[in-house]
Amino acid sequence: MATLTLSKLEKSFPLGKTQRRVLHGIDLTLNDNEFVSIVGASGCGKSTLLSIAAGLEEFEGGDVLVDGRSITGPGLDRGVVFQSYTLLPWLTARQNIEFALKAAGTPAKQCREIAQQHLELVRLENAGDRWPGELSGGMKQRVAIARALSYRPKILLMDEPFGALDAMTRHQMQQLLIEIWEKHRLTVMFVTHDIEEAVWLSDRIVVMGQGVIDSTFPVNLPRPRHEEMSRDPEFIDLQHRVLSRIRQPLATH
Ligand SMILES: Nc1ncnc2c1ncn2[C@@H]1O[C@H](COP(=O)(O)OP(=O)(O)OP(=O)(O)O)[C@@H](O)[C@H]1O
């Protein structure tokens, strides 16, 4: 069981001598095992929202709750994957995963076993001893996902994780993510600029306006989803409806 609740969130950043409000009254609950994508124009606050949910960014008002309990910072209940490759270059793929586990207090022998299991999960069981510099972008993101999942969080927070990948690799990564999501019953918050990706992956798409939640679209397409579905009129119609909300004039507050 893992629900993530963002309640009445308020966030500002300093702007010269004043404050610029970037999130205003955000209310959003991700239900257990729900896959929710967050989309919206550049600068509307998606990454800030995800960083707050991760416990990496402070906020002035509201609350972030995991299963009803307020969070006070990053925690093992939430795994995070960013767009930029965040592997430590002086550690191998396996050591990157083990490093996160050791930091969480896992005994060395167990670290090795769990790292191997998670390399297998992302189909990199034969690449564990390679250095990040020897891995493709897609492989690096697979290690980052393995690392984020290695301490068994029930919530996965992903900020444009496939944004830097080519179309083919991106599609393979989307399929892998869905497999993992189904197997591990994760609750996922997924920030993306790619509306087709959001429709393809999600149970629900949340469109942000400037610092606010503009609208929400349930994705009622059946699972498992197939590639041909992207030609389905329902799929295309939803894509257009989401896109037309993003193109609305920006809110002024
Ligand atoms: N550390 C910071 N200091 C000051 N302003 C910031 C900081 N981080 C973000 N901002 C501002 O907050 C607003 C929201 O930024 P955020 O990165 O959350 O938007 P976004 O929707 O994720 O954008 P993009 O889609 O381009 O990644 C922007 O106006 C940005 O300039």
UniProtKB/TrEMBL annotation:
Pfam families: ABC_tran. Residues 4-235 form the ABC transporter domain. Keywords: ATP-binding, Nucleotide-binding, Plasmid, Transport. SMART domains: AAA. It comes from the Bacteria. The keyword Transport applies. One of its GO terms (molecular function) is ATP hydrolysis activity. InterPro entries: AAA+_ATPase (IPR003593), ABC_transporter-like_ATP-bd (IPR003439), ABC_transporter-like_CS (IPR017871), ABC_transporter_ATP-bind (IPR050166), P-loop_NTPase (IPR027417). The keyword Transport applies. Belongs to the ABC transporter superfamily. Drug exporter-2 (TC 3.A.1.117) family. PANTHER family: ALIPHATIC SULFONATES IMPORT ATP-BINDING PROTEIN SSUB, TAURINE IMPORT ATP-BINDING PROTEIN-RELATED. This is ABC transporter ATP-binding protein.
